[in-house]
Amino acid sequence: EVWSESNTRIVRRRLERDVFPRIGMTPIANLKTPVLLAVLHRVENRGTRETAHRIRQAMDAVFRYAMRTGRISVNPTPHPEALIPVDPGHFASITDPGQVGALIRSIRAYSGTYIVKQALQFAPLVFVRPGELRLA
């Protein structure tokens, strides 16, 4: 898996803030699931559940790499169910048909770049995620 430069910076910042201060000096072969879980619970207890899940994913990627390169034989990353589930919350949506017209008028009045305006006009026709629209 190849990460973008911005994603790499975000992951590195999370690890530097929440993981390395706790376990950064421990040899990777000595890390055990309860220790990793304690690090993740500390992040959860701060009220940042989604960050804890993302850090767990990054840990898993590191340990999978360590397994592929022969540094460890077992991946100690806690299972996702060991963490409190993330509440996805409410995503903004238009449910009133009368408001759809206002949205379309706002898109037509958009004065930004040509490409963005075209993408905004195309999006309601195809109902895809922004990343999928960009790649199309």
Write the layout of secondary structure elements.
Blueprint: H1 5-23, H2 33-45, H3 49-68, H4 97-109, H5 114-126, H6 130-135
Helix pairs in contact: 1-2, 1-3, 2-3
Description:
- The protein has 136 residues and is an all-alpha fold.
- The protein has helices spanning 5-23, 33-45, 49-68, 97-109, 114-126, 130-135.
- Helix 1 packs across helix 2 (33-45).
- It starts with a helix and ends with a helix.
- 7% of the residues are buried.
Summarize the structure.
By secondary structure, the chain is an all-alpha fold. Helix content is 62%, strand content 0%.
Q: Could you give the count of β-strands?
A: 0
Structural class based on helices, strands and sheet pairing: mainly alpha
Order of SSEs, N→C?
A: HHHHHH
Query: Level of helix content?
Result: 55-70%
Poorly predicted runs: none
What overall geometry do the principal axes of the alpha carbons give?
Answer: elongated
Distance between the termini: 21 Å
Radius of gyration, in Å, reads 21 Å
Oligomeric organization of the protein chains: single chain
Q: On the 0-100 scale, what is the average pLDDT? A: 93
Beta-strand percent range: under 5%
Number of helices: 6
Major beta sheet, specifics? none
